[in-house]
Structures are given as C-alpha cells and as structure tokens.
Amino acid sequence: MSRKLIFHTLGNLLICLAGSMLLPLGIATYFYFQQGAVESDLSAFVYATIITLCVGLILRFTVKPAEPELGLREGFAIVTLGWVVVALFGSFPYLLADVFAADGRSSLEEFSFCYFESMSGFSTTGATVLTEIEHLSHAMLFWRSFSHWLGGMGIVVLAVAILPMLGVGGMQLFRAEAPGPQTERLTPRIAQTAKLLWGVYILLSVLETLLLWLGGMSLFDSLCHTFGTMATGGFSTKNGSVAHFDSVYIEVVIIVFMFLAGTNFALHYRALRGDVLSYFKDTEFRFYCIVILVSIVLISWNTVRFENINKEIPYDSVGDAVRYGAFQVLSITTTTGYGTADFEMWPALSQFILVTLMFYGGCAGSTGGGMKQLRFLLLIKQSGAEIKRLIFPHAVLPVRVNDRVVPSEVLTHVLGFFFFFIGIFAIVTCIMATLGLDLISAAGCTIATMGNIGPGLGSVGPIDNYAHIVPAGKFILTFCMLLGRLEIYTVLILFSPNYWKK
Q1: Any bridge partners for residue 230, and if so which?
Q2: Which of 195, 225, 246 is the last residue of a domain?
Q3: 173 in any annotated domain
Q4: Where does a domain end: 153, 180, 195?
Q5: Contact, 469 vs 437, CB < 8 A?
Q6: 359 vs 54, 354, 465, CA distance in Å?
Q7: Residue 159: which domain range?
Q8: Residue partners of 405: CB distance under 8 A and separation at least 6
Q9: Cβ distance 260 to 271 under 8 Å?
Q10: Number of structural domains in the chain
Q11: pLDDT digits (tens, 9 = 90+) for 78-117
C-alpha cells in the first residue's frame, strides 16, 4: 500500500475543500461591508481557508508518490481518511469563530461540538448541537448547508470528476464511496460518470432553488434549503426548520425534491436523455414508491381526528394529516430530516412507521442514507426464495431484480451489511445508554446518526438537539455518521488485520 499516494490524494481533497470555502468567504466579505464584522465571521473563514489550502499544497507537492495508480487498498484508505480529514478542516470555521465557545466549556468539549457539526454537515446527517440557529452569521449558515451539498453526491466523487489525474484508479474511490450494494457506470470512463452525476445534481439544485425563490423564500434561504434537500441533509437556516415558513407551496416543492434526491441518480440521467420509462422499469424505484405511499396512507389515517373518536390525535382534517404526514414520511425515508411537525406527539403507530423508515433510507445511487431500499428488497426476495426452497428442495430459485439474476456475492454482501448494521446499532445504543441517555434517546440518536437522518426520538427528537450529549458520546455518534455515509464496509475494512498485511 502506497502511503505517499494516500497523503498526496488527501492533499488534493484539501485543495478542493479550500476552494469550496471561497463561497462562504465571499458571503462573509459581503456582509462585513453591509452589517459589520460582528455579523460576518470574515476572519474565521479567511484563516480556515488559508490553513486548509496550505496543508493541502504541502501534502500535494512535498509527498511524491512513486506509483500514480490507485489500488483497492489505497482507495478504501483515501475515502475513509478523506471524510475524516475534510470534516476536521471543515470544522475550523466553527472553531475559529467561537461558535460553540462558552464559559466553563473545555477545549475538548468545544472541539467535540465543532467536529460533530462539521461531520453532520458533510455526511448529510443534519443532527445539530446548535440551540439558536438564527443567531449565526449568514456565512456560517451558508457553510453549514453548503457542506451538505458537497457531501451529498460525495466529496471524493467530486474530486474524481475534477481531478482527471486520478485516471482509471478513480474507480476504486468511486466504488468505495458510492451508496448501495453495487456501483453503476454511466460511461466507460469513471471520471465522466462522476461528472454526469454531478451535472444532474447541479441541474436539480438550480431548479429547486428557483422554485423556492418563486414561492416567497429569499434567495439565500432558497439556496440553503436546496442544499439540505438535494443532499438529503436537513440543516435549515431557521430554528423551526421548514415549519417556520408555514407554506403549503414550499412544503410541496421540498417534498418533490426530497423524493427525487432519494431516487437513484442514474435514473434521472436516463430520464433527461429521454428514457422517462426507465423509472417505472426499475424494480427498486417501484418498491420505493410503494413504501412511501403505504406509509403516507397509514400515517394520515392514524393522525386524523374523527368525530367522537381519537380526540387526542392532532389533526382535524384529512388535508392536514396528509400534508404533515407526507412531508415527514419523505423527510425520514430519504433521511433528509427537515421538520414541519413534532412527530413525537403523534400516535404510537405513526412513530413506529417513521422509526422503521429510518432503517430503510433512500435508493441505491441516491444521496439518501439508511440501509437503502434495494437491500431490503433483496432481503425480502431472498427470504421468499428460501420459503419456496423448503417446499421445492431441488428447484433453482434465483433472486432477480430488473429481470436480471442477482449474483450470490451481492446477496452475501447484503446479508453481511444487515448483520453489521444491526449489530453496531445494538452496541452503540448500549454505550449511549451507559453515558446517561434513556433507552429511547439512546436508540434514537444511534439510528438517526447511522442512518444519516438527524432528528431521532426522546431527548434528540425533532424539536431537540444533541448539545446535551457528553463529548465522548458526540465522538461516538460522529463515528456513526461516518459509518452510515460510507456504508460500514469501507470504514470497518481499515480495522481488519488482513488489510494491513502485504
């Protein structure tokens, strides 16, 4: 394994990150002249950009790899360490602006807040440790949401798209970061595939920004909420999230684009090329639609208040039940995490459905987190095949998706992923409970971070935050965000002794 190549590539990633900091730096400069230094956090972004750029240039030009070609081991190391390092340097604006500074708070506690917020942004989790979001400067609000957008399609995929020097070896990075049990090339060249995916991503982002702007949002709020929607992140510029705007139009626009963000982006590319029917030919997409529709119907029925029945149920009309139910179903299923209602006040059945959807997540190849719809579809099909095999022991019963036989190694991968996901969920829940959280809060924060969702249950519910969790708990949950974003295997492989053997 070439360590020099790993550090050299990490330097390239930091240079890209420094370039991305120029946007919030520009916003900070604008508001510095408009409203003064108190509002702008200009110096924090100046120093953060300079530090990130200098470290990136040092790694790029002082570490010269002997072998330019990336291997499988280097790919896994670069992707995992890349996310750790980018989140670290991405936390510098928070740290330098003293966003989380408080009397009696140690340096370690302050850093745990900053790193948690940064990883939550880049991993598109949307869990926050902020109590007063609207007190932040425009530049800091933009950086929080922009980190979502960078992490949504993948910071390493972005590097593959804009750094052709990675060459064919870029496939190792793409495969290690792309969500889902299988990766799909749209073109023979992986750099071209990355560019096409980012092109679709940008096009949908521009369209949503315009629609939100036309709906009455400011251009700034439209951009920030688009970043959170298309990346399925969930950071908002308002304390009340999307509920602050109290607009059916805005909610419908965000619902539509959350749905699109949770869909495989390869299908969007084919649709833009004229093959609109590719959506309905895709088995996972049909399963995704069924899960969402059934969940909306059940929650809407469960939350509407009928005459003389269920007086404690929150909504007086079917319209309100559908409005708030549909938004929360899409928000949780796609792991966006935006809120228009406190779903902890809903009946137990509705809460159970939402918790189940936290595990499902979006489609493979989307910006959504969770275990992915395709994995659950394969598990269901495999379970059905096993039941048939008991009845017909000698029958050949392959699992098919999109009229193609799923290779046995993919099914093994899915079963292993399911085991690791549930096992880590159980272990982390126990650890968080020992750190002082009640069982519901411990389970809620674990699945909310592993699934990159944001809001959980209990003390980390939709109207709460993660600020009260001790520093050790924040670092553990930060690791869970990384596991969820890189889908476990890419991270855990670095802890295998065989990985380090020659």
Answers
A1: none
A2: 195
A3: yes
A4: 195
A5: yes
A6: 40, 9, 20
A7: 3-195
A8: 398, 399
A9: no
A10: 2
A11: 888 989 999 999 999 999 998 888 767 888 999 999 999 9
